[in-house]
Design goal:
Largest sheet: 4 strands, parallel
Structural class: alpha/beta
Strand order of the largest sheet: 1-2-3-4
Number of helices: 11
Order of helices and strands: HEHEHHHHHHHEHEH
Helix content: 40-55%
Shape: globular
Distance between the termini: 31 Å
């Protein structure tokens, strides 16, 4: 994914643009398909921001994609989701070692800012019930308290470059397939769902996701011509869709297999 520090990103490409849009990602991926003589995709699947990209694929190239699997993502980033992201962004950009973006020219790694970003971000990964059940005891090795679990995971983004994190966070905030709609409902993501997307779409939100709420997915399923909703019944919040809990992963695999008309093998 552009901007993730592995593909072309602010951290490794001097002339990298100051902002990214999901359209940039899909155009690049489509160009790669063309270069490889791939004329269609049977399935586009993604988790979180990858799920949003699956929606963009089905919206930008309606006849190129047969199936889309959206796991813990959304057709439009909600206002609540946008507001949440401002917290980690502010924690990073207001840190003393980020130094208003001057850390590079001073040769400083803004570790404090990156740890602050993680602390502001972390509680939203799981659900309140996950914490109530003290699931962190098994998930974070050696943690003896909630605070200890946070301390032990605060370095999760330490290997990232801040500008990569920020450009992806801003792209996440701007997610909205409504830009592909037309007519009287121009700009409305629901119009894109109903009148642009032709692919069969499996939407799999987590019931306890605090980023991409399952209520939004339920609305999306109502507008899709060929949409199917399968809610992950879990306390693991957003990360359930990323394979954090084996039981949830097994259930998702079964749902995807049924959706694609295949059979899982042992």
């Amino acid at each position: 994914m552009l901007g993730n520090g592995e593909s072309s990103s602010p951290s490794n490409t001097p002339s990298f643009p100051s902002s990214l849009d999901y359209r940039d990602q899909i155009k690049a991926q489509h160009a790669l398909c063309e270069a490889l003589y791939i004329s269609y995709l049977d399935v586009v699947a993604g988790f979180s921001m990858g799920g949003q990209q699956a929606y963009y694929w089905a919206s930008m190239y309606p006849t190129f994609v047969s199936h889309a699997v959206v796991i813990c993502g959304s057709a439009k980033t909600s206002g609540h989701n946008c507001a949440f992201l401002e917290g980690p962004i502010a924690a990073l950009t207001n840190s003393i070692d980020y130094d208003d973006g001057k850390y590079r020219e001073k040769g400083v790694k803004p570790v404090r800012g990156l740890k602050a970003f993680t602390r502001a971000y972390r509680a939203w990964l799981h659900s309140p019930e996950w914490y109530r059940q003290e699931q962190w005891r098994g998930a974070v090795k050696g943690a003896e308290s909630v605070g200890g679990s946070v301390d032990k995971t605060e370095g999760a983004f330490e290997g990232w470059d801040p500008e990569d994190l920020l450009i992806l966070a801003r792209m996440w905030q701007g997610g909205d397939i409504g830009i592909f709609s037309g007519g009287l409902l121009k700009g409305d993501y629901r119009d894109t769902l109903a009148n642009v997307i032709q692919a069969k779409v499996l939407i799999m939100p987590s019931r306890t996701d605090q980023y991409f709420r399952h209520e939004d997915s339920e609305i999306e399923a109502m507008y899709l011509q060929k949409g199917k909703l399968a809610v992950i019944d879990t306390v693991w919040g957003h990360v359930a869709g990323g394979g954090a809990n084996p039981k949830d992963t097994e259930w998702m695999e079964e749902q995807i297999a049924v959706f694609l008309g295949t059979t899982l093998k042992d």
